[in-house]
Structure formats: C-alpha cells, structure tokens
Design a protein that fits this description.
Elements lengths: L3 H24 L14 E4 L9 E4 L4 E4 L5 E2 L32 H26 L7 H38 L4 E3 L1 H38 L8 H25 L1
Antiparallel strand pairs: 1-2, 1-5, 2-3, 3-4
Helix pairs in contact: 1-2, 1-4, 2-3, 3-4
C-alpha cells in the first residue's frame, strides 16, 4: 500500500495546526476571552506616559491595559494597529517616550505590513488545507497543495521576521528608557511555530507526490508494462488453445 495518504494526512494536520495558531494571535485584542486575552506582542511599563495605562500591551488591533490577573483589557479595535508610541494612533505625546521612537516611521511600517502579510499567509494556508484533501488520493493534489503551502510559508516567514524585528527592538527601546518591557511569549511562539508547521507541511506534500510516482513506476515494472488484466497471460491462453486444436486434428487424422 502506498504511504502517500498517510503522509498527506500528516501534512493536513500540520496545516490545520498552523491555521489555528495564526487565528489565536489574530483574535488577540479583538476578542475578550480566554485564552486569547493572554496573547500580545509587547508589554511595556507606560506609567510615565500621560494618559497611558500603567502597563500597555500591543496586539494586531489595539493597545490593551492589563487586569490584576494578567489578562488583556482592550478597547476599540483598529486593523493593523501599529507600534508607534508618540503618534496619535498610540499615546499622542512624546513625554515619557524613548527618543528612539520619535521622528521615525520604521516601527509603524514594520507592524503595519505584518498585518497584511499574516492575512495573505492565512488565506493560502486555508486554501492549501482544503485542496490538501485531494492529496489523499492524487499526486496532482499533493503538488498543488505543496505550492499553495509554500506561498503561505513565504508570507508567514515575512510576518514572523517583521514581528521579531519590530517588537524586540521596541522592547529594547523601552528598557533603554528605564521602562520594564517584554515580548509576548505566546504570540512569538505561535507565529514561529506556525511557520515551522507550514515548512514541514510543504516538504511532506512534495514527498507524498514523489512517493506516489515511485510506487506507480515500481508496479509497472513488476507487471512488465502490461495491463492489470495481464495481456501476456491472455496471449499464452490463445497459444494454448491453438496447440490443443492442432493436436486434436492430428489425432483425428490418425484415427481415420
């Protein structure tokens, strides 16, 4: 039995896991519930910034304050919410903000593009997930799913890289300004884990397609390139029938 269905099934499980992890990070800040209210990209001490909460957390959608039990408490949602403390999108002041954030748009663009890339990645991952059902019974399905998964992997890698660059540098800026800060372990872990799942799934879909081809070639060699019903056997049967008829005629001639 060909191992292709099992390899394809493993790939589907990995893609489903990647989609779930991305969804969890996307929902943080937009949905007020467990477990997504524990997910954030950056937490920083913003008590020195006028109008800011003592602790602030950045998500894809907004800046959230922190409850006494360590959960996010978020307000209105804004898609592609940037890390840009001095701008009117965040705190609208330069007081208490590290100088590294002032006069630059670097963090703004890094975090804005993150949102676009993660949506593209999720779209192709979901398409690969559904198309991957055909990979259970088709080589073409395996290769097409691998191609879509590779596109999702590309954009997910971009998302994780931009996330790491923006928020790790942002954390360092807050710390340099004597403000405690740390990156979100769940969001970072989920985004990089999703990238790893997509990478493994892309490889396994290719393996499933190649394995199926090898199995087909091996079967053809074993059967001598003949059809399933055995063309050679049919020829031999015809030859045997002709020989039997010839022998009967010879016997009849001798008797006569």
């Amino acid at each position: 039995m060909t191992p292709r269905p099992w390899i394809a099934l493993t790939s589907l499980v990995l893609i489903a896991g990647a989609c779930l992890l991305i969804f969890l990070v996307l929902l943080a800040g937009a949905v007020d519930g467990n477990p997504v209210n524990q997910i954030y990209f950056l937490q920083a001490d913003t008590s020195a910034i006028p109008g800011a909460a003592p602790l602030s957390r950045w998500t894809f959608w907004n800046i959230c304050s922190v409850t006494t039990n360590g959960r996010n408490m978020c307000g209105k949602v804004h898609p592609a919410f940037p890390l840009d403390p001095p701008s009117d999108r965040n705190f609208d002041t330069t007081k208490g903000v590290d100088a590294a954030f002032i006069g630059t748009r670097k963090y703004f663009y890094l975090t804005r593009f993150m949102f676009a890339f993660v949506l593209i990645s999720l779209f192709f991952a979901v398409c690969s997930l559904f198309l991957g059902l055909f990979a259970l019974c088709s080589r073409i399905g395996s290769f097409l799913s691998s191609a879509l998964c590779a596109v999702a992997l590309f954009f997910q890698t971009l998302t994780a890289s931009l996330m790491t660059a923006a928020y790790v540098i942002g954390r360092n800026n807050f710390r340099a300004n004597k403000q405690s800060a740390n990156v979100g372990k769940y969001s970072f872990g989920f985004m990089w884990a999703a990238m790893a799942c997509l990478f493994l799934s892309t490889v396994l879909f290719c393996v499933a397609g190649v394995t199926s081809k090898k199995d087909t070639t091996t079967y053809t060699k074993r059967t001598g390139g003949k059809s399933f019903f055995g063309r050679k056997n049919t020829t031999r049967s015809r030859g045997t029938f002709i020989d039997s008829e010839s022998q009967r005629r010879v016997v009849k001639d001798e008797l006569s």
